[in-house]
Fold this sequence. Notes:
The chain is an alpha/beta fold. Helix 2 (about 55-65) crosses helix 3 and helix 5 crosses helix 6 (about 210-215).
Amino acid sequence: xxxxxxxxxxxxxxEAVELANTAAADxxxxxSLAGRTRTPTLPADVTVRSGGFGGAVALTRWLTSYRxxxxxxxxxxxxxxxxxxxVLACVERSLPHLKLMRPPWEPLSxxxxxxxxxxxxxxxxxxxxxxxxxxxxxxxxxxxxxGIEGVALVIRSIDPPESANPLPEAVYLTGRGPFTxxxxxxxxxxxxxxxxxxxxxxxDATYAKxxxxxxxxxxxxxxxxxxxxxxxxxxTVDAALDWLNSLETxx
Length: 251
Ligand code: NAP
C-alpha cells in the first residue's frame, strides 16, 4: 500500500515483534535488530535490517536517508545505549519517538531478592549469597563473572557460548523463552542451584525462574534496570499502536 508512514521499530523483544506484526497493517515498518542472536524471532511481512547503525550520528543519517516518520524503541529495558542514541537522533531530526517498555517485576511475599545496581555488582555480591548460581543474563554480560571464586555457574543463553568464552568452567544450557514454572523448578532442582542471578527484565516470558526460586526458597540477585530514556513511554503494545495511530490523525 502506498503512502503509509515509515516507522522504524527498534526490536529484539517479543513486544517489538508483536508491535511490528500489528502495525504493519497501516505503516511501512522497518524492524531493526542488533544482530546478536543467530536465529532471531522476526515479524512477518516487514522490512528487517540487522546490525548496529554506528552510533547516534549515523542513526540520524539513516533516519534521514530512509525517510522515517517516527521511531518506536521497543528494545529490551537493559539496552540503554541504543535507547539513548534513538532519543538523540529523533531530537536531531525532530521526529516523534516512543519507548515501549514493559513494567519491571516487583518482589512478592516469599521472594528473597538482593537488588543490585548493575551486573558488576551482581558478580561481587554472588559469593556472599550462594555457591551454585543460575545465570540467564545474556552472553554479552558474562565477562563480569570471570574470576569470582567459590561459586559454580550454570548459564543459560539462547545461543551457545562464543569460542572466546570468559567462563570455560561453567555449565552451559541453551533455551529460548517463554519458560514454564515446572520446567524452571526442575532446572533449579536438577542443577542444585542455591542462587539465581537475573536482570529485572519484566514481562511473562522469563518470569518463571523468579517464581520457581520463590517456591524453592532460593535467593535472587536482581539487577535493577538502567535509567529509562527521556520522553514518551508506554508499557503495552496496544498503547504503542494507539500512539502510532494518533500520529497519523495529527498530521
Ligand atoms: P545496547 O547496549 O543498548 O546497544 C549496543 C549497540 O548495539 C548499540 O549502540 C547499537 O549499535 C546496537 N543495537 C542495539 N539494539 C539495536 C537494534 N535494535 N537495532 C540496531 N542496532 C542495535 O543493547 P544490548 O543490551 O546489547 O541489546 C542488543 C539487542 O538485544 C537489543 O536490540 C535488545 O532489544 C536485545 N536484547 C537485549 C537484552 C539485554 O539484556 N540487554 C535482552 C534481550 C534482548 P550502534 O551504536 O552501532 O548503532
